Amino acid sequence: MASIVSMVGCGLSYNSLEGLKRSKEKTFGGVGVSGGGKGRRSVLVRAETINPEIRKSEEKVVDSVIVTELSKPLTAYCRCWRSGTFPLCDGSHVKHNKATGDNVGPLLLKKQ
């Protein structure tokens, strides 16, 4: 069984869940993945910064990409890994940024 756990913008990835089975918990930029027993998995999110060095002088890092083939005029994608509607952004980065002093924001796809 192979699966991918990756963090967009952080350059971290883990390509096999087999390695996760061997240890109690692995952490990727504040997102911990652990075996819950009997085939269940749980995700533990720690309060630490996700963006250690990218554009730290900005209050919030938000990137926009213009795409011609979208069904909606604007779609926001989560980059903080805290969204309840992941992969779409629900604004959870605001609470995360206040708790950690981070400046992570969504990726905005705009229809041309």
TrEMBL record:
Which cofactors are required for activity? [2Fe-2S] cluster
UniProt keyword annotations, A-Z: 2Fe-2S, Iron, Iron-sulfur, Metal-binding
Q: Name one Pfam family in it.
A: zf-CDGSH
GO CC term (a single one): mitochondrial outer membrane
Q: Answer yes or no on keyword Iron.
A: yes
Q: Which residues form the Iron-binding zinc finger CDGSH type domain?
A: 60-99
User: GO terms for biological process?
Assistant: regulation of autophagy
Keyword Iron on entry: yes
Please give the InterPro entries that the UniProt record associates with this protein. Answer: CISD1/2, FeS-contain_CDGSH-typ, MitoNEET_CISD
Instruction: Show which residues constitute the signal peptide.
Output: none
Q: A GO molecular function for this record?
A: 2 iron, 2 sulfur cluster binding
> Which PANTHER family did the record assign?
CDGSH IRON-SULFUR DOMAIN-CONTAINING PROTEIN 1
Which protein is depicted?
A: Iron-binding zinc finger, CDGSH type
